[in-house]
Design a protein that fits this description.
Layout lengths: L2 H21 L5 E6 L1 H4 L2 H9 L5 H8 L11 E6 L1 H11 L3
Antiparallel strand pairs: 1-2
Helix pairs in contact: 1-4, 1-5, 3-4
């Protein structure tokens, strides 16, 4: 998988979250209050929310962070549901 697919996946995921927020479609989002320990460890937040640490990239995207070493903003944040993540991963051929 090339970087262009990964970047397209990230953009699609970000667009999905923003589109759902814009129309008030909270049925297709997870609304989560990011705590202090989660803000320091995106993989911990991934584990708590999705049951696995492999969705760190998705957490970072939803929080508007630039990378794994950024501290995430604490407070209420909207995240994509796992069904949307898996659908977009299949479409963009992201592992």
């Amino acid at each position: 998988m090339g970087d262009s697919y990964r970047n397209s996946y990230r953009n699609s995921l970000r667009d999905h979250i923003e589109r759902c927020k814009a129309v008030g479609d909270v049925r297709n989002l997870i609304i989560w209050d990011v705590q202090e320990d989660e803000a320091k460890d995106a993989s911990l937040l991934s584990l708590r929310m999705y049951g696995s640490r492999i969705y760190t990239d998705e957490v970072i995207i939803a929080c508007g962070a630039n990378g794994i070493y950024d501290t995430l903003l604490q407070g209420r944040t909207a995240f994509a549901k796992i069904s949307a993540i898996l659908q977009l991963r299949r479409y963009w051929e992201v592992d």
